[in-house]
C-alpha cells in the first residue's frame, strides 16, 4: 500500500479529534503523530504504514489523557448547522452513537468517517477481519434500535 501523507493527515486528525474533543489538541497530536512516524526511518519502508500511524495517534491520545487527568467521555457539543432538520438529525445520530461503547464508536469513525477498509481497521485494531465485520454490524444494529426509538426508520 502506498501511503500518501496528504490523504492520511485528515483521517488521523479526525481520529485524534474523536479521542480528545479539542481542535487545537487534535492538531497538535496529529502533527506529533507524523513527526514520530517520520523519525522512525527503519519502519517507513516496512510493515503497514497506515496501521502504524493510527497506533502512534492512539498512544499519543492515551498519553494526553494520562498527563491531563481528563476522562475519555464524548463531548456533548453539537456543531452549528444552517438547517434545523439537518441539525436535529445530526444531533440524534450523535446522541445515538454516544450510547455505544467507545470501541464501537471508534470502529464507526474509522469505517465511515475516515473511510478505511475492513482490512485496514483489522490491522489498526489488531483483530481479525471477521471481528471487525461482527462488531460493525453490532454497532449498526444498536444504532438502528436507538434511532427507531427516536422515530427514524434508517440511518
Notes on the protein architecture:
It is a single chain. The protein has 155 residues and is mostly helical. It has 2 domains: 1-72, Rna Polymerase Sigma Factor, Chain: A (Orthogonal Bundle), CATH 1.10.1740; 79-155, Orthogonal Bundle (Arc Repressor Mutant, subunit A). Helix content is 73%, strand content 0%. The chain contains 8 helices and no strands. Helix 2 crosses helix 4. It is globular, with a radius of gyration of 17 Å.
The total count of helices amounts to 8
CATH topology category name of the largest domain: Arc Repressor Mutant, subunit A
**Tally of strands:** 0
CATH class of the largest domain: Mainly Alpha
* Whole-number tally of structural domains: 2
In CATH terms, what is the architecture of the largest domain?
Orthogonal Bundle
The CATH superfamily label of the largest domain reads Winged helix-like DNA-binding domain superfamily/Winged helix DNA-binding domain
On the 0 to 100 scale, the average pLDDT is 77
Structural class: mainly alpha
- Quaternary structure classification: single chain
Distance between the termini: 31 Å
What is the N-to-C order of secondary-structure elements (H for helix, E for strand)? HHHHHHHH
* General form: globular
How big is the Rg? 17 Å
Share of residues in strands: under 5%
Fraction of residues in H or I helices? over 70%
Short description:
By secondary structure, this protein is an all-alpha fold. It contains eight helices and no strands. The chain has helices at residues 5-20, 23-39, 41-44, 49-68, 84-98, 102-113, 118-125, 129-149.
